[in-house]
Amino acid sequence: MSDVPREESRPMQPAGESEKAQAGVAAESGQGRARAVAPWVRTRLRAAPGAAAGLALLVFVTALLAAALPRVVDAYETKGLRHGIRTAPAHRSQLEITYPLEHGARIAPAALRGDQEKLRGLLPAPLRTDPEQTVNGIRTVEPVPGLDAWLPKPDNEPVQFRLSSPSDLAAHAVLRQGRMAKGDPLRPEAVVTTAMAETLGIKPGSVVHVPGVSAVPVAVTVTGVVEPRDPRRPYWVVEPQLSTPALAMTEDPVNPKRYWRAGLLVAPESGSALVSTTGTPEVFWRFPAVAEHLTARDAGPLAAAVDSARTGPASAKIREVTGQTGLLTTDLDEIMAAYAATKAAISPVVAVAVFGIGAVAAVVVAMTGGLFLSRRDGELTLLRARGASLPGIGLRLFGETAAVAVPAAALGLAAAVALVRGPDTPGAPALTGSAPLLPSVLGAALVALIAALVLPVRAVLRHRAPRLHGAREDLVDAKPSRRRTVAELTLLVLAAGAIGSLRLRGTDDAGDHLVSAAPVFIGVIAALALVRIQPLPLRWLARPARRMRGVVGPLALARAARSSATGVLPLLALVLALTTAAFGGSVLAGVADARDRAALLATGADARIEGRTEGVPLPAGLIEAVRAAKGVREAQPVQIEYGLSLPSPVSTDRPMSAPLVAVDPAAYAKLAQQTRNGAFPAGLLASTGKGGPEAVGDTDRVLPALASPEVAARFGDQPMRLNAAAGAFRVKVVAVRDSTPAVRGEDFLVVNAADVTNLRHTTVLAGGAVDGTALRAAVASKSPDFAVTLTSEARGSYVDSPLQSGAEGLYTAAIGAGAAYAVVAVLLSLTRSGPERTTLLARLRTMGLTRRQGRRLLGLEALPPAVFAALGGALAGWATVPLLAPGVDLHRLALATAADGVGPGGVALRADPWSLVVPALAVVLLTGAAAAVQAWWTGRKSSVKELRAGDAR
After folding, report:
1. Which of 185, 317, 627, 930 has CB 3.0 to 4.6 Å from 273, enough for a Cys bridge?
2. DSSP letter assigned to residue 280
3. DSSP string of 869-932?
4. Rounded to whole angstroms, how far apart are CA atoms 882 and 503?
5. CA distances from 661 to 90, 345, 670, 764, 949 (A)
6. Is the pLDDT of residue 153 over 50?
7. How far apart are CA 595 and CA 895, in angstroms?
8. How many Cα atoms are found within 13 Å in the side-chain-facing hemisphere of 749?
9. What is the distance between the alpha carbons of residues 67 and 413, in angstroms, rounded to a whole number?
10. What H or E segment, with its residue span, contains residue 735?
11. Over 296-352, what HEC string results?
């Protein structure tokens, strides 16, 4: 053949010519031996540069994806870990070390500062803290009352002060009045914030007296007023009572009273004076944790470090500094546990996409080797006929493909490292970033190995025995051998056994990734079944098609039934791509539905308007203004009375409270039906005909009520008397629902608004395509004390972690990559059969076939395999969803926290019809379009060359 390297021919030597004469000729030419033959690899690459470039491009893209995958996962897991620590409340993410002080103890600020650095050094790695926000001092654990008469007393209750002597106050606050406090343990001084001074009337020079352990109160002199530099930093937010006064209520359930909670910022030099108060003083060190240096690989060591600092070896060293009464408290372990739970729930879902797209990529690379093998089958057959050995052919082909695959994979690895850097991490290598390099190297190396081996392995297997040059390759001649049948049956049994094992043991991944590989197993089963079943219906259809006018239809069906392009690999690639797309689309659709549902349950309707303080009645004209706002289709007011104490027929039952909701039954039942949130017939809450102010004295009337399960269980079947702000009456539970639109919570009681005696609407539930800006403007024009909550805005609050957004982005990318590989599979399948189809058309044209008929023939021939692949992929995707649904936790992927709920049924994975149908139709349309383009291009070419090439004599 023309592309087989061979030695140059040389003229034969005369019979009597001596070796010396030959050597002389060689010496005259300047060479000691004959010129070497051109290397095989260089010759082959030069002979087919297009094929080499195509293989290099495919390997480059595949290696890029394989190398980028672990870096992307590491990046969003690292961001998720840092986000969890960074966004947690400061009092939860900090490490606080305390020990109690006895009366009469004295501690110098310098001693506390020295112990602070010792304790910081004892915290095990990878725990790191923020030195700027670290604070130490002495404080009172229990609040102490202010004894001065000039302090404000809303309900004649004294101000409750918390005294603290935080270090470095001057660095975190700006002096506005007076001077900074100094003092000493006998004459303590303090400062207050501007908010404290304005609310409590404290000014420089004021003296605040608090109870002492002796009969003499402790007098604290206020020397100045300060303003926090950044009140959102941990220095201030951990103890907000020190910077901002708050109005609180006493715990007396009968007669609660209001009082002020406040704080005094005592000078560190005066800190020891707090041991003379009745506030149970203690020494404290607060170490705010930082997360900028952490990576996903630090999650386990960080949790172990927290355990060690709390109860392990590090704890013993900490107690050497604080004494045996020292105590370390933190919620970092809970933050890490929440991160680990979210990661554990998301990782199996992501692994399904990884396994699916990996399998598709491997199959497509194998198809590329098959294409190259089909183009060089004649060459290899001729080499085998001339005595070439299988190892020799395999090694030459391996060198040929390795010369292309290895550099392309290296470039893909370099591109992945350059494109996916990961979050900035102090101390990370500048070249590779914070993500580990080894997984990316292994991924790219695996791609290069597969690409380099697929052609020589397939060639060796195909040419184990000498083959006839020009023999037929369709299913009429090359029927599946017994070895292939046994191999397919073995693979089928293994895949079916894996699926059966999965069903028997459940969907918990035991470390063998059986759950994640389930779509691949199902795709393998579907592809092996389809490749055997596919010719049968096509042959059945070919029989009645013979009665049709013309030869295009019967010929297309006959060729589709026996074409070699309907092998296992093209079907497997398409089925796996469709299965991955169907499962991924179902996951994304389930996540979107869960967020929509959770947002709707949180608001009760498309928009919710209620007071910023509970129980505030709607102002006049607000309902009309809401109904007139842009996009509002309907709006209904309801009355919600929170915290209503519920009676019980059993005196020993624990106290219980629930919201009481007064509604218009007809409108509210319609809303519940539309939102699928506790739907009920409006007739259940039919009016008793007794309501309004005139029914105040009729306390024995019985109102039908809709109740939550726990409230219904408490009331039983008998009417129970309620004393509410809405009136005094008796209620009888007539229906039980798990949820209701007006309130979000486990307990509620819904009655007819026409039957209450004191109706004051407090909330408006609006529906429609609400314009948030217009609605807020309408509400603000009536009262600034009411807030507007939109379902569309509430939905965005459920994506607060990079773990969620990263997993969703990876799934979307996997679906896109699967679609791209499906396109490549279709093109490879058509390209492999292209020369044979071109030759067929050339021969048929000599028999009178028109160009239009030729285009129809090629298009109809390519569609049946695509239709079977689409059906197989859709069925495999449909079977995968219910198989994996019990073990796929979409709750943490869809919602921000485990506390967010979507009502009964939770977040279940269900097959999404669009994800099943749309990719399948796309495959059929893509195949038809590609075949049409191929037929159009083939029809434009001359048939002389194909007829010569097809002459097998």
Report:
1. 185
2. -
3. HHHHHHHHHHHHHHHHGGG---HHHHSSSTT---STT-S-----HHHHHHHHHHHHHHHHHHHH
4. 11
5. 37, 37, 16, 12, 86
6. yes
7. 7
8. 30
9. 6
10. strand 727-736
11. HHHHHHHHHHHHHHHHCHHHHHHHHHHCCCCEEECCHHHHHHHHHHHHHHHHHHHHH
Q: Which of 143-152, 505-514, 720-729 has the highest mean pLDDT?
A: 143-152
Q: What angle do CA 144, 147, 148 make, to 5 degrees?
A: 135
Three-state SS at 426: coil
How far is it, in rounded angstroms, from Cα 943 to Cα 839? 8
One-letter identity of residue 90: A
Give the angle subtended at the CA of 523 by the CAs of 521 and 528, to the nearest 5°: 100
Q: Determine the 3-state secondary structure of 246 from DSSP.
A: strand
Residues with Cβ within 8 Å of residue 767, at least 6 apart in sequence: 605, 606, 607, 632, 633, 634, 635, 671, 674
What are the pLDDT digits (tens) for 702-736? Answer: 899 999 999 988 888 888 888 888 888 889 999 99
Residue 147 pLDDT = 92
Q: Residue 422 in contact with residue 433, Cβ under 8 Å?
A: yes
Phi, psi of 117 (to 5 degrees): -70, -35
pTM, 2 dp:
0.80
Could you tell me which of 278, 317, 272, 260 has the C-alpha nearest to residue 123? 317
For residue 652, the 8-state DSSP code is T
pLDDT given for residue 715 in this prediction: 87
CB 582 within 8 A of CB 881: yes
Kindly state the tokens that stand for 489: 């049956």
Residue type at 835 in one-letter notation:
P
- 643 contacts 817 by C-beta, under 8 angstroms: no
Neighbour tally for 468: CB within 10 Å: 8
pLDDT of residue 445: 95
The backbone torsions φ and ψ at residue 270, rounded to the nearest 5 degrees and listed phi first, read -100, 5
Residue 211 amino acid letter: P
* Average pLDDT value for residue range 890-898: 71
Share of the chain above pLDDT 70, in %: 88
Q: Of 57, 53, 63, whose CA–CA distance to 358 is shortest? A: 63
pLDDT at 164: 94
| Whole-angstrom distance, CA of residue 932 vs CA of residue 866 | 14
**pLDDT at site 9:** 39
Other CB atoms within 10 A of residue 720 CB:
19
pLDDT beyond 70 at 415: yes
Phi and psi angles of residue 703, each rounded to the nearest 5 degrees, phi first:
-100, 130
What pLDDT score does 440 carry? Answer: 93
Across 58-111, where does the E strand assignment appear? Answer: 94-100
Q: Kindly state the average pLDDT of the residues 677-705.
A: 84
Q: Sorting pLDDT into bands at 50, 70 and 90, what band is 797?
A: confident
The reported pLDDT for the residue numbered 10 is 41
Residue 808, C-beta contacts closer than 8 angstroms, at least 6 positions apart: 588, 591, 893
Residue 476 has pLDDT above 60, yes or no: no
